[in-house]
Amino acid sequence: MNCPNCRAEMNLVKTQSHYGSPVLLDQCPECGGIWFDQAELYRVRLDESVNIEIDKEALTKEKILNTPSLFCPRDRSPLKSFKDPHFPEELIVESCSSCGGFWFNRGEFENYRDYRRQKINQPSDEKLEEEVRLMLEAEGVGGKYQTLAKLSQFLLTPLDRTTLKPLEGRYQNQAHQAVNTVSLIIKILLELFLRR
Q1: How far is CA 25 from CA 19, 114, 117, 149, in A?
Q2: Residues paired with 81 in a beta bridge
Q3: Alpha-carbon span 98 to 118, nearest angstrom
Q4: Which DSSP string do the residues of 16-34 spell out, in sequence order?
Q5: Are residues 83 and 60 in the same domain?
Q6: In this structure, is residue 6 part of a structural domain?
Q7: 72 and 99 share a domain?
Q8: How many CB atoms lie within 10 A of CB 76?
Q9: In sequence order, what are the beta bridge partners of 16?
Q10: Are 80 and 69 in contact (CB under 8 A)?
Q11: Last residue in a domain, options 84, 119, 154
Q12: Which domain does 143 fall in, by range?
């Protein structure tokens, strides 16, 4: 994929989402611009800006955004200046109305991070994660998870239509397998989230 600004081939840069999963961004090695595909801008941790912004000295050529018309590196649609009431006016960011991607010039992602922290008073990722962890711990007090497991087991147990009693045999085993599978998935997701 080529850079919309200087047409150089962009490199893939590995970043992390708010939940630790990898997000691959496209970055130009010549001008330092970053392409965010649809929703990647909102998935990438703001602290990742320190890791992906290229220093001016590391750039192979001094490039400034001066191309009158930029085109989407994905679908070649014209890029337009992005305007939104919840987005800083001082940042010059281009977007593609066709695929929903964003083009950030070198340094603009750091400016975007600073704006999000100062203007919206967004807590840092670590503080947000700690608040979520505390909420999950509070929900676990008093055996609520066991109550939910019992309720889901009851709801998944098939009943005889005439007697309204639980069915015996293979139907009961299928219900237990479904409950165990759902419980295991929830447990794994909670453990992954709390490890971070």
Answers
A1: 16, 20, 22, 40
A2: 94
A3: 31
A4: EBTTS-EEEEEE-TTT--E
A5: yes
A6: no
A7: yes
A8: 10
A9: 22
A10: no
A11: 119
A12: 125-195
